[in-house]
Amino acid sequence: MCGIVGYIGKKEAYPILIEGLSALEYRGYDSAGIAMVDSTGLTIYKDKGKVDRLKEITRSIEKEKGAIGIAHTRWATHGAPSKVNSHPHTDDKERIALVHNGIIENYSILKDRLKEEGIEFRSETDTEVLAQLVGKYYENDLAAAVRRALADVEGTFGIAVVAKDQPEVIVAARRGSPLVVGVGDNELLLASDASAIVRHTKTVIYLKDNNLIELHRDGIYHTTTLENVQITPELHQLEYDAESLAKGGFEHFMLKEIFEQPQTIKNALRGRLLIAEGTARLDGLNIVHQELRSIERIIFVACGTSWHAALVGEYMIEDIAGIPVEVEYASEFRYRNPIIGPNTLVFVISQSGETADTLAALREASHKGATVLGICNAVGSSIARETHGGVYLHAGPEIGVASTKAFTSQLTVLSLLTLLLGRMRRISHSDGMTIANALQAIPSQVEQILKQNVKVKEIARIYHHHSNFLYLGRSYNFPVALEGALKLKEISYVHAEGYPAAEMKHGPIALIDKEMPSVVLAIKDSIYDKVISNIQEVKARGGSVIAIANEGDCEIEKHARHVIYIPKTIPILSPLLSVIPLQLLAYHIAAMRGCEIDQPRNLAKSVTVE
Length: 610
Ligand code: AGP
What we know:
By secondary structure, this protein is of the alpha/beta class. It binds 2-deoxy-2-amino glucitol-6-phosphate.
């Protein structure tokens, strides 16, 4: 959601902070601000709008303002986007400046208490309460003041704080909101996401929950718990470099990421697919085969697109491995009283590894004694660190807010998991080989589909003015219908509903007229004929149909107005192919409607608040 950047070293802080903020804009972007400290004091610039607006208002400032600073891009939670609500926030004496990700849940009580003490507030934010508290406790020891302030607050935070009279230190702390420290050559960087600092260093510390770090000049840092117990943090190396954060000639990150999928699927398969044995290996699960064999139930927990991937996982695992699977929204699971038996395995699925609801669900499942495994993309993320084991996607950074390559990588990992579990329980060597060979072929089949980009664009041109779309699919392609509809809504702001095709007649069929196109996943599988009947039902009511069908299907053109053909694969893997045209369709419709594809309104890439 919001983004934090900090710098302390020998270079000028300003360009590093601005560049870092630009890299983080995909996380949240309704306002931006910067605070720099030098021997002459504290300077703050902030305003509503994107980082470009911040650049505009800082154009005339003296850039050599100092070698220490903190900066922030905001995604509003408490208080509308405005200059006064933007971060950094200060205490009323303007001695300290603070940027914050997360939510201070008891801010209202604390605010009333501070007001009674005569402290004046300027903004409507929860963050200002924290800034005022730090200011109240500040007596020349910034870390001590931050510690005392954090003892008063409930909620989540990733914070960075500077003091006007201490141009030698940044204090950062976290609970529930990620912070990563970049360890450079006599310099230290701080960010809520490593993409903001990877240009400067690949050596990082992932700050743990309830830890505080003091960053000093000359690259010296000091880490403690919030109770001031000293700790030695682990150093990690980032797996990607700055190039992977560039658009690489594509107009948008989303399009680049759609086109990366043949490669990212290969990355997810690498070293894990054992073709000759007709099975898979997933060493990161950290579970012995004996334990895997005794599993009686699996629960997948996720949000958004990751939840759609989980739904495909449910179909696959029940079908091939015969293990009962449940799929839960993390936001529901965390507040229910879920029943987790002794042989239940919980998987949390998250691209970012930082989604607040998924993280909370993980903790709830752990409290209940479950073994919780993760399927994550972001290496070193909170979810990756807190799970007992798991599988990385290795898809590289996903910048476009609309998840594309992470979805197909999640499906790939879930297919590998299915193959592994299936071979342990139900399926023969030859059935295992059929799945393994089909998986191996997926990257080149995705490549073939991507060659139809121009055709998909033509279809988008015909329909981009429409305001409502229905996405229909059955079996393995029902979750794909949900995902196609989500892609369209989030980047083009067009209303779209995903439905199991046969459920249409229980309600949504009432919506169908010539203004409401239906995108139908008509894949040749055991229920193809039923899907054709569903298409007829749409047509009979004047609706036009865009079908996703298999190459060689001569029947479909009689029924659908437009057909996008995809190569044939085995049914369990068909979502890996059928989703590609839907990603492209959403992309082109959004582009033709002039939408901000990589940064859609109201959305943030990583939802680190409830
Ligand atoms: C996907 O296009 C969305 N932007 C969103 O639904 C996302 O999948 C969801 O917020 C979960 O994110 P995660 O995978 O990082 O946990």
